[in-house]
Design a protein that fits this description.
158 residues; alpha+beta; Beta-Lactamase; 6-stranded antiparallel β-sheet; 6 strands; 26% strand; globular
């Protein structure tokens, strides 16, 4: 596939996901390198949705370590159970946070971040990383994001 994406923005969020997912599948098809695929997924999501920050943290020992991302500089290491990312890892569950200031123990990597969704990347029953998406708007993420971001994450860990 050519590395140009067909970005559509004048449609519902659900249609945007339905349009970008086949493009992500084509972009990563046949590429065995996880880091390369994570980098392209982060770039595709950032380009499609224009979120404040989108990227991956990867499990390294007892920490999440910053992986491929798009956006401003970020926290480099996060302990299990700390903040939204560490909590998602610990719970092996997607967390949708409408207001990060209300999340106990939130780690403020960027003060402009107002809401967040974190999706665990699970391979063979083990969390190997998380997809972290931040928005500068409150209550930006919902069940639609949960469904489709989980579908995207399932594509990359395979």
């Amino acid at each position: 596939m050519a590395e140009d994406l067909n970005i559509v923005t004048d449609v519902s969020k659900e249609v945007q996901y339905q349009t970008i997912i086949p493009q992500i599948e084509a972009l990563i098809a046949g590429e065995p390198d996880l880091i390369a695929n994570l980098a392209n997924v982060a770039a595709a999501l950032k380009q499609q949705f224009g979120w404040f920050w989108v990227g991956f943290y990867l499990v390294k020992g007892d920490e999440l370590v910053l992986g491929p991302f798009q956006g401003p500089v970020a926290c480099t290491r996060i302990k299990k159970g700390r903040g939204v990312c560490g909590s998602s890892w610990e719970q092996a569950a997607t967390l949708v946070v409408p207001d990060v200031d209300q999340f106990p123990g939130h780690i403020a990597c960027a003060s402009a971040s107002r809401s967040e969704i974190v999706v665990p990347v699970v391979k063979d029953g083990i969390v190997i990383g998380v997809l972290d998406v931040d928005s500068e708007y409150l209550s930006h993420f919902d069940a639609v994001d949960d469904i489709y971001l989980n579908e995207i994450v399932a594509l990359v860990h395979g």
